[in-house]
Design a protein that fits this description.
With 153 residues, this protein is an alpha+beta fold. It has 4 helices and 6 strands, in the order αααββαββββ.
Length: 153
């Protein structure tokens, strides 16, 4: 009986794949590379650094926006203006992201995550913290061997 249990455990371990901590996402070099770019985006966002965020985006970045929230479409140029304007209005910012899914197909990748964005704005009566949460999707493309954000900022 013990031998059967031991064999079942060995077979199960041989068939399982390593996953990234806290996710069901396979631990591969490509997945880690995409998540590294997402991590750099998070750090740049929290530092309120539009230049660093733009450096992570493709030159032909495009996003359809979200008309239901009053957010229009954006390309690389409008993204630059939007980031500078939006980030200049906040005095503090924190992004918590729970990775839900990551799919890499050749030179393209899609990252789905749940985000909780907390930010502070200056008001006449002092700093006021607000929060927003929602599902989000970011798309990436590999250019010259480096992953860049193609949409979803």
């Amino acid at each position: 009986m013990r031998l059967g249990v031991a064999l079942a455990c060995l077979i199960g371990a041989a068939c399982s794949h390593a996953t990234l901590p806290g996710t069901n996402i396979r631990d591969t070099a490509q997945n880690r590379a995409v998540l590294d770019v997402f991590g750099r985006f998070k750090l740049a966002l929290e530092a309120r650094d539009p230049t660093a965020i733009l450096a992570l985006a493709t030159p032909d970045y495009t996003d359809p926006g979200d008309p239901s929230r009053g957010i229009g479409p954006a390309d690389h140029g409008t993204l630059q203006d939007r980031l500078k304007g939006d980030l200049s209005k906040v005095t503090g910012l924190r992004l918590e992201a729970t990775i839900k899914d990551l799919e890499v197909k050749g030179e393209q990748a899609r990252l789905d995550y749940f985000q909780v964005l907390r930010y502070a704005v200056a008001t006449p009566s002092g700093e006021k913290w607000k929060s927003e949460s929602d599902d989000a999707r970011m798309r990436f493309v590999r250019l010259n061997g480096e992953w860049k954000i193609a949409s979803g900022l």
